[in-house]
Amino acid sequence: MSQLQAATTSPATSSRLSSWSLLLNNRLATGGLIILGLIALLAILAPILPLDDPNATSPADRLQPPLTEGHLLGTDQLGRDVLSRLIWGSQISIAVGLAATAIAALFGSIIGLVAGYAGGRTDNVMMRGIDMLMAFPYILLALAIVAVLGPSLINALYAIAIVNIPFFARNVRGVTVGLVSREFVDAARLSGKGHASILFTEVLPGVLPVIVITMSTTVGWMILETAGLSFLGLGAQPPQADLGSMLGEGRRVLFTAPHVSVIPGLMIFALVMSINLLGDGVRDVLDPRLRAGDLTRPRSMTRLERRSKPEPRIETDAILDVQGLETSFQKGRKTVPAVKDISFSLKKGECLGLIGESGSGKSVTALSLLGLVASPPGMITNGAVYIEGEDVFSRTETGVRALRGSKVAYVFQDPLTTLHPLFKVGDQIAEAILAHRRINRSEARSRALELMEKVGIRDAKERVDAFPHEMSGGQRQRIGIAMALANDPDIIIADEPTTALDVTVQARILDLLQDLRRERGMALLLITHDFGVVAQVCDRVAVMKDGDIVEAGITGEVLADPQHAYTRKLIACVPEIGQGKAFLEGLRPLFAEKQP
Amino acid sequence: MSEPAIVVRDLVKTFGGNRSLFGGTSHAVQAVKGVSFELQRGETLAIVGESGSGKSTIARMLVGLETPTSGVMEIEGQDAAKLRAQGSQVFGRVIQYVFQDPVASLNPRKTIDSILDVPLRLLRGHDSEKRAARKRELLDAVQMPTDTLERYPHEFSGGQAQRIAIARALAAEARILVLDEPVSALDVSVQAQVLLLLDDLKHEFGLSYLFISHDLAVVESVSDRVGVMYLGEMVEMETAQALFRAPGHDYTRELIASAPRLNRAAE
Amino acid sequence: MLGYIAKRLISAVPVLFGLSVIVFAIMALIPGDPATAILGAYATPENVERINRDLGLDRSLPEQYFAWITNVLQGDFGRSFRLNRPVLDEILERYSATLVLAGTSLVICSILGLLAGIVSAVRQFGWADRIITFFVLIGISMPAFWLGLLLILVFAVQWRLLPASGMYAIYGGGDLPDLLRHMILPATTLAVVATGVIARLTRAAMLEVLRQDFVRTARAKGLDERTVIYKHAFKAAFVSVIPVIGIQAGFVLGGAVYIETVFQWPGIGQMLVNAISTRDILLVQGGVLFVAASYVLFNLAADVFQALLDPRLKS
Questions:
Q1: Which of A130, A386, A550, C97 has the largest count of CB atoms under 10 Å?
Q2: A7 vs A111, A282, A289, C305, CA distance in Å?
Q3: In the complex, which subunits touch C with 3 or more CB pairs below 8 angstroms?
C-alpha cells in the first residue's frame, strides 16, 4: 500500500510523460500496442474499406479455401467472405468487450469505493452481496443470466459485465480501505471536508491507477468470454456475427473447411494476447513496486564488484576488522555508494556502537559484513571484512554461509517480520543449530528449549511450539536473540534490536544482551540511532553520517568531548531526563544561525 | 480566568465487544478506562505511556476520529459531541490535530498549496487573495520557503513534512492543538528543531498543547504538567518538575529508570 | 482446528442460502410462461392452468421459494420435462462426468502451475523463465474452445492418435485406459488457461516472498540456498497461492461448459447449455445450484487447508 502511494506521487504532467516512455520501453507492451492498434484500425475502417458485404450469401461460392481470387481468406458455408466477416466481427467483439469493461468498471468501482469508505455495516452488506456473486463458478453465472435474459449479444454483454463486477469491487475496496485508514484522510476531515469531497478528491485519485490496472487486465478476458458465449450460441444471433459466433458456426464444417473456424479463433487469440501484453505493460508502469525493480529475486549473497583485490589474510588481533568497505546501490545505470570507504575493528568481547541518523548507512554496513545486502540493487564495491584475519569476501559462497549464524550471528530490528510467520519458534531456533551441527532433531529441540530459558522466556516448554504472532514484541526479540546464540557465536551484530520496543522492554533486552556478552565473551556490534543506548551498552562508538564514519572513540570520551561538529550537534539534540525546559533553551543557539 | 481549554471526565473507550450477525460476541478491549483531566489555556499537558496505554485513543477521541463509549469531553466549555454535530467546519476552528507520521498525513497526490488551501477556504472562509497571503504567512511561521507551495509531499524530508502539517493545523486558527507523537518518527536532530518550532509557535499564537508521547525526556523538555498512562488508566498526574523529581507511582519510576541516559559528564 | 472448520462450515450456510435465493430469483425472472414452453402448440387455457398449479406457479414467490428449497433439501429437484426424468438423477450422472474431467484438469494445472512458477522465479530472467513466461502468456490469452478445435484437428483428424469426442468408445470401450485416452485432449485444453494463471501468480508470490525480512533471517542463520527457497520461501508463497487455486477451480468448472461442448463430453456443462436453449428451467436451476454449492464447499476446503498451513488465519 505505502509503496503504491509512494510511487504515484510525482507531479501529474511529468509522470504522464515518463509513464508513456516507460510503457514504450517495454518491448512486449509496445508489440502488443502495435498489434492491437492495427486490429483496431482495421475494425474502425471497416465501413470504408473495399470489403464485400459480410452478410451477402452466395451458395455457389461456399467453402472456398483461403487465397481464392476475390476472397483472400476464403468463404464460409454460406459463401460469405471470411475476411469481411472477420473485420466486421472484430469490430463487434472489441466494442462489446470495451462496453462490458466500462460497465463492470463503473459499477464495480462505485460499489468498492462506497463499501471501502463507509466501512461497518454498509461495507458488510455490500461485500456479502459481492461474495455471493463470486460464489458462482465464473462462467456459470453468466450462463444463468443469459438463460434469464435470452440469448443475444447485448444480453451476453450484460452477463459478462455483471460477472466481472466483483473483481472491480474487490480490488477497489481493498485499495480504498487502505487509503481511508491513512492519516491524510483524517487530516482532510479535520480541515473541514465533507464525505463526498473526501471520497472524490482525496481517495479517488489514489484508487484510479488500480481501476486502470484492473481494466487493462480484464478487458481481454471479457472479449474472450463474450466470444465464448457467442460460440455456444448464446451471444450474437445470426445474421449478426462476432468472432465467437463465427467460430461456433465454423465448427460445423471443421473437418471439411477448417479455415472457417481457425481464422476467427486466431483473431480472438491475437486480440486477447495483444491486450494482455499491453495490460501487463500498463500494470508495470502503474504498479511502482515493479517499476522500482523491487521484484527482482535477491541472490543468496551480495554481489561483489571490488575495484581492488585486498589481501585475503592479514595479521590482526581484532576479531572483526573492516578495512575500506564500500557498498553501493545500482540506481538505473548509476552506481551510488551508500557506505564509503569505512574502516573499524572490534576486539574479542568488546562492544562497538555504530550510531547515525536515517540514511547514514549504518544498517547497510551491518548487512554488508556477511554479504546480506539485497542484491540487486546492492553490491560490495571495495574493501575487505576480516574475521579472525581472514577476508570474508575472498571465501566461496559456501564459505561465507559457514560463517553466518555460527561464528557471526545477527539480531534484526523487528522480530515480527524477521521471524518466519509459519514456523514454530522452537523449530526456527533448532533449524539454526542444525544448519551448522550434525546432531539429531530431538537434541536440537532440547537445545532450543535451553536457549529459550537462557534468554528469559518463562514457561519455555509451552512457548517452544508457539508461532511468532502468538508472542509479544519483547518475547519475539528474545527468540531472535536465542536464535543468534544457537551456535555460540564470537560476534553478534545487532541491527537496531530494540527500536520497535517500548522503553521498559528495551531496558530488559539491553540488559540481557549485556549479560550474555559478559558471560560468553562475545563481541557485539550494536547498530542504533539512540545515543542513550550507546552510552548504556557500548565500550566504543563510531558515528556515521552519509556513509562515512565521522568520529570514533571510547564512548565516555566521545560523549564528554565530541570532536566533530556533527557529533556535537547530535549529542546536544538528545534530551535527557532531569534537564527540563533548559534543554530547549540550550538548543536555541545551535539552530539560531541557520534558518532556511 | 476563563474556563479550561479541554475538560475530560471519566472517559471510557471500549473496542470490539459488538454482537456479530450470528450471535457471537467479539473480544472486547478496554483501551481507556475512566480517565479525567483538564488542559488549561496556554498550558502544555503531556500524556506519556507505552504502546497500548490508550494515550493515542484519547487524542483521537478529542478530535472526533474515535467515538467515546462513555464520559464527558468539553472543548472550550462546549460539549465535544455537540460541537462536532455543528459540522466539521465549526469543530475544526476550535481544535486541531498533528499526526505522528507527517508524510502519511499529507495526500501524496496534492501540492502543498492545495493541502493548505482546504482549511483556509472551508474553516476560515477566506477569499483567494487572502488565502494566498495567509499561506505565505503560515509557511513563514513554520520556517519553510515560499516555493514549498508548488511542490508535492514526497519532495520533503520527514522534518519538513511535519512543519507543513503543523502549518495546516495552524491555518484553522484553532487555539488548541492535539499533538500525537509529533516527533517520534523523526531523527533526533530534526526532532529538536520541531520541538523548538512548537515552542515558538505556542508563544507567538497563544496556543494550548495536548502533547502525546512515549518519550519521557522529550516530554519533560516541553510540558508544564505530565499525566502517566498505563493500560488505559491515568496512574499519575503532576507538574513536570515534581513528577521527574519525585515520581509517585511504581510504573512511573520504572519508566524513568528504563529511559536510556547519556551521562554526558562521564565519570 | 476442528473449531475453525465448524466455524467455516457455519459461515458457509448463509452463502449457500444466498446462492439458492439468487438461483431461484433468476429462474423466477425468466420471461414467458413455462406452461406454454412445456405445452407448446397444445396449450389450452385449462392445460396451462393445470400445469401452473402442478408447478406451484399460482402461489406467491416466497411460498414458491419455500416449497422449492424444502424439496431441494430433501433431494427433490423436480422433473425435467424434456428428458422426462428426475433432475437430480440427470445431474448426478452428468456431474460425475464433469468432476472426472475438471478434477483431473485441476490437479494438472495446480502441479504444472506451481512448478512452472517456482522455476520461473528461481531462474528469474534466465532462459527457463523466458520460455515459461512466453507459454504462460500464450496460455492465458488462449480461447479454450478454439484450442480444443485445434487439438481435435491435429490429434484426431490429422494424426488420428486420439478420439475427437465423447467419454468412452462406442464399441469395446468403457475401461479406464479408454477413459484416459478420451480425456487427454479435453483435460489438457481445460488446464491450459488455469496453468498459466497459477504459474504467473506463483512466480509473483515467490519473488515477493524472497524479498521479505524473514528470508534474510534464514540466510543470516547460514541455511543453504535450497532450504531458503524450497522450505522458507515456498511455504509462505504457497499459502498465498492456495486461494488462487480455489478461484481457478471456478474457472475450470466454468470452462468445462465450453470444453464439454467442443468434445461432446457428457458433463453438466453440456447439459446446461442444452437446457438453456430448450428452456428446461428446472434442469438449469438444479444444475446451477448444484455446481455453485459444490464450488462453495471446495473453496471452504481450500480455506481450511490454508489455515492449516498458516496458523495466523485461525485467529
A1: A386
A2: 26, 14, 8, 36
A3: A
Find which of A124, A191, A195 to mutate to test the B interface (most B CBs within 10 Å of its CB). A191
Task: Kindly list the structural domains of chain B, giving each domain's residue range(s) and its CATH number in brackets, ordered by start.
Answer: 1-93+208-267 (3.40.50.300)
Residues of A in contact with B193 (CB under 8 A): 591
User: Considering only CA atoms, which of C189, C267, C258, C281 is closest in space to residue A229?
Assistant: C258
**A-chain residues within 8 Å CB-CB of C120?**
none
Query: Do residues C12 and C132 both lie within one domain?
Result: no
Compute the average pLDDT of residues B61-78: 91
| Averaged pLDDT for residues C88-97 | 92
CATH number at residue C243: 1.10.3720.10
- How far apart CA A418 and CA B161 sit, in angstroms, is 29
Residues 160-219 of B with CB under 8 A from A: 165, 168, 171-172, 187-189, 191-193, 195-196, 199, 214-218
CA distance B187 to A387: 32
Task: Tell me: pLDDT of C156 over 80.
Answer: yes
Tell me the per-residue pLDDT of B80-126, one tens digit each, with 9 for 90 and over: 989 888 887 888 899 999 998 888 899 988 999 999 999 999 999 99
pLDDT one-digit tens code per residue, A355-378: 998 889 999 999 999 999 988 889
Report the domain count for chain C.
2
For residues C14 and C101, membership in a common domain is answered with: no
CB-based contact B144 A596, cutoff 8 Å: yes
Residue of C nearest to A272 (CA): C141
CA nearest to A477, candidates A425, A431, A436: A425
d(CA A309, CA A301): 18
DSSP letters of A576-589? -TT-TTHHHHHHHH
Q: What is the ipTM of this complex?
A: 0.89
Of A136, A266, A367, the CB nearest to C292: A136
C72: containing domain: 2-87
- Residue B154 touches partner A, C-beta closer than 8 Å: yes
Name the minimum distance, in Å, from the CA of A154 to any CA of chain B: 39
| A238-253 pLDDT, tens digit each | 888 899 999 998 888 8
Residue C147 and residue A251 in contact, taking contact as beta carbons nearer than 8 Å: no
Q: Which domains does chain A have, with CATH numbers?
A: 28-49+74-290 (1.10.3720.10), 318-407+489-592 (3.40.50.300)
